[in-house]
Amino acid sequence: MKPFLTDPAQPDRIRRPAPPAVFGLPVRTLGIASHWRSPATGALLAGEIGRNPGNLHLHVQRISLWHKLDDAAATAAAIVDLWLVLGPRGLDLRTRMLRKHYTELESCELGLYLAARLTDGIDRHDPRIALPGTVLARPVEGARIFLHRETQSAPPPS
Q1: CA–CA separation, 26 vs 9, rounded Å?
Q2: 2 assigned to some structural domain
Q3: Which of 1, 30, 44, 103 is most open to solvent, judged by the fewest CB atoms within 10 Å of its CB?
Q4: Parent domain of 41
Q5: Whose CA is closest to 81, among 41, 48, 33?
């Protein structure tokens, strides 16, 4: 690889090569531009969240996108993913999302459920949050304790 490129119109001018392009949305704002608002963009953001769940910027973009597209179920799924990443942290952000998108959450019967878990967060294994479209939920029915320690009495002295 050549470390420098020459300009054919001006051979004496040297410029650095451009870095390789990375596929993604060409926006760094929290809201998605109107010409990018589509379910395909939502699928792209969900895939990126699956690869990098800690990127809160992607989470907020995804919530904003589905809210602008008036898809209540997808908005609720995106909010659930954000709550899963935040865990018990981010109380102010979780409260803001709950207040702003309460109607979408309540359409999936999650408004009161999430309001009750505002301070502690939610568990990714909870079957109640397993909405179609959630990326990070791993629901488990029943108890998640698969192995129990056997209580053995001490062997009798010989």
Answers
A1: 30
A2: no
A3: 1
A4: 28-151
A5: 48
Tokens of 53: 């769940």
Q: Is the pLDDT of residue 71 over 90?
A: yes
Report the length, in residues, of the chain. 158
Q: Let me know if residue 102 belongs to a domain.
A: yes
Whether 38 maps to a domain, the answer reads yes
- Contact call for residues 91 and 69 (beta carbons, < 8 A): no
Tens of pLDDT, residue by residue over 120-156, are: 888 888 888 888 889 988 877 766 665 566 666 666 6
* pLDDT of res. 97: 92
Strand blocks (E) in 39-95: none
Domain count, the chain: 1
C-alpha to C-alpha distance for 95 and 14, rounded to whole angstroms: 53
Contact assessment for residue 128 and residue 111, using Cβ atoms and an 8 Å cutoff: no
Which residue's structure tokens are 């942290």?
Answer: 89
Residue-wise pLDDT tens digits, 19-58: 544 445 555 667 776 767 888 888 889 999 999 999 998 9
pLDDT for 3 beyond 70: no
Distance (Å, whole) CA 110 – CA 121: 13
Tokens describing residue 61: 């973009």
Which among 88, 81, 87 is positioned nearest to 58, based on CA atoms?
81
Q: How far apart are CA 60 and CA 153, in angstroms?
A: 54
